Amino acid sequence: MDIESKLSTLAKVGKRLNMASVEWAVGASALLYLEGVTADFHDFDLIVAPDSMETTLDVFNRLGARLLPAQSPNPVYASARFVEFTLDNVDFDLLCDYTLRRNEDLYRYPFPGDRAIRAVTVQGVPVPLCPLADWFVLYQLMPGGVKKATLIAHHLKTHPRDGTRHWLGKWLNMRLPGEVRERIFTLYTELGVR
Asked: Domain with 60 in it: what CATH number?
């Protein structure tokens, strides 16, 4: 399916979520596309606040989305809720209380808080985005995610944005694996040299 068709479906969903006052944001590969880091994406990962999950499920049901059967749990992911829908042949993963498991330790993404700080307009609809700095960290916690984290770091260095060091600093105040903390600190330092 072409990107414009996927974005059209995102706009349809986003309009309804916004009307329902859902706290949500786009993350993962679609975030990288919308921020200009990559040229393509497969599906939409929507990070949803715990208080908004039931409303979000209702929005997808009212739009006629098809609930996909639950898959076998992946030991890497320990989110409170993970629900997959397809709408207009576009897949949506709804992630509530997004948590990653690494070496038996759990790392929770602190959404919503103040995380959806920026929105882009997709076919006339405001679409909130997670901070790229957050996904620089989250990809490092996922198996095989360092390549995407490296792409994000390069983008953040070549396209500086106010607030990036703020988000990285918040992660530095959290419990993280040593090598991940090192990479965050390196990027944090490099961005401060400007």
From this structure: 3.30.460.40
